[in-house]
Design a protein that fits this description.
The complex is a heterodimer. Chain A contains 16 helices and 31 strands. By secondary structure, chain A is α+β, with helices and mostly antiparallel strands. In chain A, strands 6, 7, 8, 9 and 10 form a five-stranded antiparallel sheet that branches. A four-stranded antiparallel sheet of chain A has the order 1-29-28-27, with no helix packed on it. In chain A, helix 4 packs across helix 11, helix 6 crosses helix 9 and helix 12 packs antiparallel against helix 13. The two termini of chain A are about 40 Å apart. By secondary structure, chain B is α+β, with helices and mostly antiparallel strands. Chain B folds into three domains: about 80 residues, SH3 type barrels, CATH 2.30.30; about 110 residues; about 240 residues, MetI-like fold, CATH 1.10.3720. Helix content of chain B is about 60%, strand content about 15%. In chain B, the strands form three sheets. In chain B, strands 6, 7, 8, 9, 10 and 11 form a six-stranded antiparallel sheet that branches. Chain B has a five-stranded antiparallel sheet with strand order 4-3-2-1-5, with no helix packed on it. In chain B, strands 12-13 form a two-stranded antiparallel sheet. Classes of the chains: A alpha+beta, B alpha+beta.
Chain lengths: ~775, ~550
């Protein structure tokens, strides 16, 4: 290595010495001693050609590298953009039933997961249709259904677990519709539909007008409204003995509800029953024990005298969707309310843009918190509860919609209108739950008492509502950054002031690289020390830290005064800047003193136990991995950055200004405060900005030293989760192209933009400072 | 003391000068304390510490090595004004006791001694075992008993280790090779069936492949039989050890790595053992979910990744800098680009990781898989994290460092040199090649080394693009094509995170983590020091000419 360098030096020295050059023409290049360029006829055109080629290649390569930076930004934007693209729907199949439904005749439709086959439960039975061809598949009706007039129908939360129909003669009949896929010999798929019915249950002598049905692990239940206005609830026991046996059947006496009942909904755990009336009321009935039910309140759906036309649940059966005759659609959740009987009250958490006509039908998605509503003008609206968004409006044909159904994979929408037409739409709706609002503003999630900023991207269950609020993460990022800057700014700027102004250049040459070397420390090292060493230590020794805050400045003061008392001859024996070295053992001693006196400090200041004191005095909880730990360690990581840049700015203040100030009689401190600091302030500002940018994106330290809990509290003693740590934790598990994946890309994009902007501001300030002092 | 000097002292501001000095002092203290802590905690662990036998007040005995001691929090009382002390021992025998470490209150200790015959066995599983050697068995028949057992034991352990190595070689290399070839044959057959039918030619090929596979299966059976007999041979010897509880356990020698009696070793022997342990740590494979053994694969992975990154970043970084400094028309636009490049160095590394995951792994890797490895789908070949993607991601992360340093190097080449060269008739390319680049070389090297140091210490982007806690194979080995760019790899920095935070036995892993940390810091600081040296050298050379 050394030899090579020496050789190059030798070559450099050779250049300007013409006497050593071998005989050459003027067109010959600068000589190389070892390998002179060959002189031949080819070089005459080859050399300029090579030169131009090199220029092209280097320019191309250089521009490509620089463009790749832009490309990176573009790629991030491209990955994020689909989040905000609107949903689209395209009709792909339309077919009609031979006999359109009569006015006000109910129907219930559904389709299989491949969107091949649809079924229609209507007054006179059940029909299966191939959507593509419109062919009706012959399926025999079970005997229990034959000859019955179906007046009401309901499906369990998941259509696979069954349907329920109510008849004109007061029967309810559980039925199971199965569509199985068989592989034909040619390799093609074929669908085989079948219907099975269980023993009918006699409910009343009048027709059933509304039904709700839920089947689950805890047994199944039916809620039915009869034409005479009666409400009945039947429990069927567990699913296994549902068919054929009436062993588990029990009728639950229900409290009287006022008004004509128009809609009914029952949740899967069979704990809540909701009934809508034509007076616009939603009544809540709590089914506390298997054979008891109590009325728990009535709520106006929307204005008065506005009949509730439909009630339904979103997946998970926690959000109740209330739809009315004047077209309003809203979702309601239960929240804790001690003033209500039962301690729970129903609250409206989302309201959607109203439809222009009475809402006649409803279907919820099996994949997410989305649902479809259809109205009497034939329009279907695709909506999503979390984002409180109407994703799509499908105008329809004008004939009222009788039933709508979302495909099991939520990739298709089937509508059935009063003209007997079945229309299948291909839905493209990959990210319904994300809007700027859900990302950054409070959202009223299921299970919460009010709008909240929450990040909780996944959970074990399928009916989980993803909570993708970036605000707690942005907050965590700012919190960590603030605590780090709180330590780093004073220390780094003080150190920079001292090294640049009061230190002998020979000392400075040693000290500056030493502090800067700290910037090279991998942050994973700092994070590890923070999490495994400092955090447990600080938990025991926090009082000592408080002690240090008092003891160390006192010691510095004392040292300064003692130094002053020393004879001048003694003081002058040392370089300027030796103060720092005197202080090292002194401060180390002070720190040791505090550590040893930890128990004593805890006794005096915190009544013997800091954590208990904290809880009693402020009601704060002490987490082991907290903001103070992060502040100290991340502070350490950015001290060298702030130090290095501000030191540079401070030393670049022209010496003649300093000399002038000193000559006018100012002390060296006065000079520094009134002159140097002022002149270098833009540089220091940019140093702080760059430190800020660095702290914002720091990943490993916060990943290891905070508990990664996404909470929004300024409390010194609890953890937080930052955008960067969140990406590191969640992106390996996020499915490629999914909503979470793209939201994490958005977080990365945010970090990119913020740090890039902050650094640009800092850089511009620095450049301007440079040019100003260049002129000075 | 009068008030006047105090006031003058205050006004002079000397106090604040001292305050600023405390900034420097505290910063230096922090660095010193940090490095000291890591050194002490890391390097200390390999010292074969004496084993204590302690009798407790409740009649139990305990054998172990003291780890640390502390004052029990909130234990000050009249009798103990300074608080009670307690010591933590590593008592090992985790399989027998259910715990590895134990706190012992100083009060509870009745007596402690260092009998010479206390032995610590380092095992392949379950961590260390402390106890006394009672007897040695071969196929359940005693070979040596009492004091004769120890001298007989040591050569047998050596032999057992040799056997273990052979078994490992057969398992890993020979059987591994057979498995790889089987897998590649399977993929070849899969490739023939990609279009869902076989032509006649393909059917013949397929049959040939099937026959080769059958041959390999046979070979596999043969190796498995050899392996079986070796395993039996390795399991023949057992040593009987009595634990601190009096319970006697039989330990197969195939599970023992070393057996030591630190209490009868003198310091020279201990030093030797210490160095041996250190070497073992640096060159060995990890064991026990990375909490024991060595870190060689992580060092190798880190170096490999940095090298691939360097190969990628060097030409592009230098090219971009050459363009910016030598070819582009200097103006506000270039200045803007320069600022942008500069700022890119300040963009958080996790952002690069996200980009690497989305672009390299999913987009590029997915395309490569679809084009060149369709037979292996849906198992990804390049469409998942790997050393190539991790290196490229880091190359993108460090390219600004190289650009900035190279530009600095280029701009420090005096103008006269260029003008001289051009005046002598050289083309621009020749000037750059023969004059500018050689002069700027130290600057470029500085940038490159700084980039390498930065890359060696980065962890966050790697977590998304291909680092794993335990890679079965190194990215380079004897298998064709020798360099496996699609493989996942281990990394020093990620090892720290993984072992320190994801390990089942964090307490036992802590010394390992400190040592890994020390290794990482050594690598990074070394690289930085080299960069600083080159930079200083560069400054000196041009100090005179640059003016």
């Amino acid at each position: 290595m050394a030899d090579v360098v020496k050789d190059q030096e030798a070559r450099l020295l050779l250049l300007p010495q013409p006497s050593r050059r071998p005989e050459t023409t003027a067109r010959q290049p600068a000589p190389r001693r070892r390998a002179p360029l060959p002189v031949s006829i080819h070089t005459i055109w080859l050399r300029p050609f090579l030169d131009r080629l090199a220029k092209r290649i280097i320019s191309l390569g250089g521009i490509a590298v620089i463009a790749s930076i832009l490309a990176m930004l573009a790629f991030l934007v491209m990955e994020v953009a689909p989040l905000f693209l609107p949903a689209t729907a395209r009709p792909i199949a339309q077919t009609s039933l031979a006999k359109p439904p009569a006015a006000d005749e109910p129907a219930l439709i559904g389709l299989d997961e491949h969107r091949n086959l649809a079924y229609v439960i209507k007054q006179d039975g059940i029909v299966f249709l191939e959507l593509e061809s419109g062919r009706v598949m012959p399926v025999e009706l079970p005997p229990a259904l034959q000859g019955k007039r179906i007046t009401a129908m309901a499906q369990s939360g998941n259509p696979l677990s069954g349907h329920m129909v109510g008849t004109a003669d007061g029967l309810v009949i559980p039925i199971k519709i199965a569509i199985t896929t068989v592989r034909l010999e040619s390799g093609a798929r074929a669908k085989q539909p079948s219907i099975a019915a269980a023993t009918p249950i006699k409910l009343a002598d009048v027709p059933i007008t509304a039904l709700a049905y839920r089947a689950g692990d805890h047994g199944s239940g039916i809620a039915a409204v009869t034409e005479s206005g009666e409400l009945a609830l039947i429990r069927l026991g567990s699913e296994s003995d549902e068919h054929g046996s009436e062993a588990g059947l029990s009728r639950v006496p229900l409290p009287q509800v006022q008004g004509r009942l128009s809609a009914v909904a029952l949740d899967a755990p069979l704990l809540n029953l909701y009934v809508g009336t034509d007076q616009g009321q939603v009544h809540h009935v709590r089914l506390t024990t298997p054979d008891r039910a109590e009325w728990a309140g009535a709520y106006p759906a929307e204005g008065t005298d506005d009949a509730v036309t439909q009630l339904g649940f979103l997946i998970g059966d926690r959000s109740l969707v209330v739809m009315t005759r004047n077209g309003s659609v809203s979702t309601w959740v239960q929240v804790r309310d001690p003033s209500q009987p039962g301690g729970w009250a129903l609250r409206q958490n989302h309201r959607f843009g109203p439809q222009r006509a009475s809402v006649t039908t409803f279907s919820s998605s099996q994949r997410d918190k989305g649902f479809v509503t259809g109205d009497a003008l034939g329009a279907a609206y695709l909506r999503h509860a979390t984002s409180e968004r109407t994703l799509l409006q499908l105008p329809g044909t004008g004939a009222p919609l009788v039933s709508v159904a979302l495909a099991p994979k939520a990739d298709g929408l089937l509508t059935y209108d009063a003209g007997g037409r079945l229309t299948l739409y291909d839905l493209h709706n990959p990210h319904p739950e994300v809007t700027w609002g859900t990302l950054f503003r409070p959202v009223w999630y299921e299970g919460y008492d009010g709008p909240a900023q929450v990040w909780q991207s996944s959970s074990g269950s399928d009916d989980f509502e993803p909570k993708l609020g970036l605000a707690p993460l942005a907050f965590g990022t700012l919190k960590g950054t603030c605590y780090a800057l709180l330590l780093a700014i004073p220390l780094a700027i003080l150190a920079a002031l001292f090294t640049s102004q009061f230190m002998h250049p020979s000392l400075r040459a040693a000290i500056k690289p030493a502090i800067e070397m700290m910037a090279a420390l991998p942050t994973v090292v700092l994070g590890f020390l923070a999490g495994l060493w400092l955090a447990p230590l600080l938990e025991r020794l926090f009082p000592a830290l408080v002690g240090m805050a008092v003891v160390l400045p006192t010691l510095v003061l004392l040292a300064a005064f003692l130094w002053r008392l020393c004879p001048r001859s003694f003081r002058h024996r040392f370089h300027h800047g030796a103060e720092a070295f005197w202080l090292i053992p002194l401060l180390a001693g002070g720190i040791l003193l505090c550590l040893l006196g930890n128990d004593a400090i805890e006794q005096i200041l915190f009544q013997g136990n800091f954590k208990v004191w904290l809880a009693q005095a402020f009601g704060l909880r002490y987490d082991q991995r907290n903001a103070v730990v992060v502040g100290i360690v991340m502070g350490m990581a950015i001290i060298p950055i702030i130090y290095s840049i501000s030191e540079e700015a401070l030393s670049n203040v022209p010496r003649n200004l300093v000399a002038g100030s000193l000559a006018l009689g100012a002390t060296r401190w006065q000079t520094v405060v009134h002159m140097v600091l002022l002149a270098a302030s833009p540089g220091i500002f940019s140093a702080v900005m760059i430190g800020f940018g660095r702290a914002i994106g720091e990943t490993m330290i916060v990943l290891m030293a905070t508990g990664n809990t996404p909470i929004m509290e300024w409390n010194w003693f609890n953890g937080f989760r930052t955008l960067s740590a969140n990406i590191a934790v969640e992106i390996p598990e996020a499915p490629h192209g999914g909503t979470l994946y793209r939201v994490l890309f958005l977080a990365a994009l945010l970090l990119f933009v913020v740090t890039f902007a902050v650094n640009t501001v800092a850089e511009v300030v620095r450049q301007r400072l440079k040019s100003r002092h260049g002129h000075a | 003391m009068t008030r006047a000097p105090l006031k003058a002292f205050w006004k002079s501001g000397e106090l604040f000068v001292w305050l600023t000095a405390s900034g420097v002092a505290l910063s230096l203290l922090m660095i010193g304390a940090l490095l000291g802590l890591i050194m002490v905690k890391g390097l200390g662990q390999f010292w074969p510490a004496d084993i204590l036998e302690i009798r407790l007040a409740d009649g139990r005995t305990l054998i172990g090595q003291p780890i640390n001691s502390e004052t029990i929090p909130h234990s000050t009382s009249q009798a103990h004004p300074d608080g009670k002390r307690r010591t933590r021992f590593r008592v090992g025998n985790q399989d027998a006791f259910g715990y590895d470490f134990k706190w012992v209150d100083a009060d509870a200790v009745v007596a402690q001694a260092k009998p010479f015959d206390l032995t610590v066995f380092n095992r392949r599983e379950w961590g260390p075992l402390y106890g006394r050697v009672r007897a040695l068995y071969r196929e359940a028949a005693p070979v040596a008993e009492g004091p004769a057992a120890w001298p007989a034991l040591l050569p047998l352990i050596e032999q057992a280790n040799r056997l273990h190595e052979r078994i490992h070689r057969i398992e890993h290399d020979e059987i591994g090779e057979i498995n790889r070839r089987l897998e590649s044959l399977r993929l070849q057959r899969q490739a023939l069936r990609l279009d869902n039918r076989l032509t006649d030619d393909e059917t013949t090929t397929d049959l040939g492949l099937q026959q080769t596979m059958a041959g390999l299966e046979e070979e596999y059976q043969r190796q498995a039989a050899t392996l079986d007999s070796l395993r039996r041979q390795a399991g023949a010897y057992e040593v009987a050890v009595s634990l601190s509880t009096g319970q006697e356990v039989r330990l197969p020698l195939s599970k023992v790595i070393t057996a030591l009696r630190p209490n009868e070793m003198d310091w020279s022997l201990k030093t030797l053992t210490y160095l041996g342990n250190l070497w073992e740590f640096l060159s060995g494979e990890p064991r026990e979910a990375n909490t024991e053994g060595g870190i060689f694969p992580t060092i190798f992975g880190t170096v490999m990744m940095v090298l691939i990154m360097t190969v990628a970043v060097m030409p592009f970084g230098v090219m971009a800098a050459l363009y910016l400094r030598e070819y582009a028309r200097q103006g506000p636009l270039v200045q803007l680009v320069r600022i942008a490049v500069n700022n890119l160095a300040g963009v958080p590394s996790i952002v690069f990781g996200v980009f690497g995951l989305g672009f390299f792994v999913y987009t590029v890797g997915g395309t490569v898989d679809a084009l060149f490895f369709p037979e292996a789908l849906p198992n990804p070949t390049y469409g998942t994290g790997g050393i190539l993607w991790a290196s490229l991601t880091l190359a993108l992360l460090t390219v600004p460092v190289v650009i900035v340093a190279t530009e600095e190097g280029l701009s420090s080449v005096p103008r006269d040199f260029r003008e001289g060269s051009i005046a002598l008739g050289a083309t621009k390319l020749e000037t750059i090649r023969h004059v500018v680049l050689p002069c700027a070389l130290p600057g470029i090297l500085t940038g490159l080394i700084l980039a390498m140091a930065r890359a060696a210490g980065e962890v966050a982007p790697l977590m998304l693009t291909g680092v794993v806690k335990l890679a079965p194979d190194l990215p380079v080995d004897g298998q064709f094509p020798f360099l496996h760019l699609d493989r996942k790899f281990m990394h020093l920095g990620f090892h720290i995170y993984d072992v320190g935070f994801q390990s089942p036995n964090v307490e036992a892993a802590k010394p390992m983590v400190y040592m890994t940390t020390l290794t990482l810091i050594a690598v990074v600081v070394l690289l930085n020091l080299v960069a600083v040296m080159i930079r200083n050298h560069l400054r000196k050379r041009y100090a005179a000419s640059a003016v």
